[in-house]
Write a structure and sequence with these properties.
Mean pLDDT: 91
Low-confidence stretches: none
CATH class of the largest domain: Alpha Beta
Number of helices: 14
Strand order of the largest sheet: 1-11-12-13-16-10-9-4
CATH topology of the largest domain: BirA Bifunctional Protein, domain 2
Radius of gyration: 27 Å
CATH superfamily of the largest domain: Bira Bifunctional Protein, Domain 2
Shape: elongated
Largest sheet: 8 strands, mixed
Distance between the termini: 50 Å
Number of strands: 19
Helix content: 40-55%
CATH architecture of the largest domain: 2-Layer Sandwich
RNA sequence: GGAGAGGUGGGUGAGUGGCUGAAACCAGCAGUUUGCUAAACUGUCGUACAUGUCAAAGUGUACCGGGGGUUCGAAUCCCCCCCUCUCCGCCA
């Protein structure tokens, strides 16, 4: 969430920025938070003053008692009898205001960065880079959901049997391809200086709030009622929350982590013809990269992360394009997002395989993730993350784009990881 | 799951109702000393909100796992929850 102090000091910039998301009531949202904060401050001042007064009186009573002036103490005690009630009222009012302010702040999405174009949805995203030639397939080319049956490498029906729709079973070379991709991605990330982490894939409520999945998106996460835990929708959640309530020193930065986890998404109500096969799943595998850095470095880091992701796609010889998302298509928490999309030749569609975002201080504020700068001041850090990469659509791209009459060619870089160069 | 013990500042650890935002020690930081290192000595050393300021200093409030309660006053007493450790049970 945004800091109220920033709302107060940069109201114009924020309201104008939020307009790029197509938020119609941006000004009202911001002003109402500012107003609540002002009431909060006023009430806190009253409460603090009253507490200061009663602290002094309590101290005085103690001194009188010690001096043996019990009757004077009793007189004073009687004189301040009403204060407690008054204080209680003030404190209740204060916590109500704090709660309302928090709820209000939760409603305000991150402010799009300077470079983000205004826009309502996917049509307004800007293609900033394209790489690789679109493969020309014959008329008999199959979409991946046919190919996986033909070669018996991924089985949706078995998944339905043991779990449900959207939970495929990877078989034989299909399973091995998953493992190869995970290892390839992790090795590449490590070469780029990321430290590998293997976090839990269920998290508590506090972590959900830390990275901004909660409140609001609880419907997207699987929830384990009995223990109050959520299955992670992305490794971003556990890996970023590692640094909740942490104050770094400057020499510990930047933090560069990577991690492989399965990801779980309920995707309630988002099914249809365009999400057949591997295009959308309830459980999928992903390698994530996460960085925590100083504010002045975050845009250089964002470029670095994009370059890393693009390098992976180039090594896999997949044609892709890089999109700068417009305000209306960005996630709630992001200040900038670049999406990488692979062209899936049999579907004749671009598939999103990575999303690289700079959250600036939006997550750090909730996480209380800060560092002590050279002047000894504690200030919020910037967090960034990106998929590097999400597997299913990569698999879809590889299968579709590399199909030949006598099998599917495995990209050269993966062969050492797979142990085979063709699925036939 | 059952029984017991315990959760205090970066760490160790004192503190059972007022003089404790918190002793002492260690680590850290700054300085003195020093050919360098080490040692010694001196000082400093939590976070948040508010107030104040060009900035700061200063001042007020809150925080001793979390939440509630008792009291004029709570780290200290009471209740609930969470977590850690030990033993037993179960188990990859």
């Amino acid at each position: 969430m945004l800091q109220v102090s920033v709302l107060r000091e940069q109201r114009e910039r924020i309201v104008n920025g939020l307009a790029k998301r197509g938020l119609k009531d941006a000004a009202e949202l911001v002003d109402s938070a500012i107003a609540l904060d002002q009431s909060r401050k006023d009430t806190q001042k009253q409460a603090d003053d009253l507490k200061a007064k009663s602290n002094a009186e309590a101290k005085r009573i103690g001194e009188l008692m010690k001096a043996g002036k019990a009757d004077e103490a009793a007189t004073l005690r009687a004189a301040i009898a009403g204060e407690k009630e008054q204080l209680k009222t003030l404190e209740q009012e204060l916590s109500k205001l704090e709660e309302s302010l928090k709820v209000q702040l939760y409603k305000i999405p991150n402010v799009p960065a300077e470079r983000v174009p205004a826009g309502a949805g996917a049509d307004d995203n800007v293609t900033v880079h394209e790489h690789g030639a679109i493969p020309q397939l014959g008329a008999d080319a199959l979409p991946h959901w046919e190919l996986i049956k033909k070669y018996d490498i991924i089985d949706f029906d078995l998944g339905i049997k043991i779990t449900g729709a959207g939970f495929p079973v990877y078989k034989g070379k299909g399973a091995k391809l998953q493992r190869a991709l995970i290892n390839f991605f992790l090795d590449e990330a490590e070469k780029a200086g990321y430290r590998e982490m293997l976090p839990p894939i269920v998290v508590n409520e506090a972590s959900g709030y830390g990275t901004g999945q909660l409140p609001d998106k609880e419907g997207q996460m699987y929830f384990i009622q009995e223990d109050g835990l959520y299955l992670i929708p992305t490794a971003e959640v556990p890996i970023t929350n590692l640094y909740r309530d942490v104050i770094f020193t400057e020499d510990q930065l930047p933090v560069k982590n990577t991690g492989y986890t399965p990801c779980f998404r309920r995707e309630a109500g988002s099914w249809g013809a365009h999400v057949r096969g591997l295009n959308r799943l309830h459980q999928f595998d992903k390698v994530e990269i996460v960085q925590v850095c100083k504010p002045e470095d975050s845009y250089r880091v964002l470029d670095e992360m994009c370059t890393h992701v693009q390098g992976l796609l180039e090594k896999l010889e997949l044609p892709y394009r890089k999109l700068l998302l417009c305000g209306g298509d960005m996630g709630f928490n992001a200040a900038v997002t670049y999406d990488m999309e692979v062209f899936s030749a049999a579907q004749q569609r671009w598939l999103e395989v990575s999303s690289v975002s700079n959250f600036e201080t939006y997550q750090a504020n909730r996480l209380k993730l800060r560092y002590k700068n050279k002047e000894g001041k504690t200030q919020l850090l910037h967090t960034l993350n990106g998929s590097a990469l999400a597997l299913p659509r990569i698999v879809a791209g590889i299968l579709e784009n590399n199909q030949t009459p006598d099998g599917i060619n495995i990209p050269k870089v993966l062969v050492p990881f797979c142990g085979f160069d063709k699925i036939s």
